[in-house]
Amino acid sequence: AGGGGKTPYRNEKIRAKNDKLREERARRMKAELEAKHKEDEQDGIHPSRRAQMHRSQHADAQ
Q: What is the pTM of this model?
């Protein structure tokens, strides 16, 4: 019941598609690693708490 066959044209088409998919995955993984390195030290702090700390730092500076 229809498996698509193993013609050389189809095999080449699938190979090209898989190569493109591998490149996209590599690009995405690289972007995720770069984003992870850019994380600041306050990433573990809840956003509302971070906002409170940010306001208090500006109040101290004035």
A: 0.53
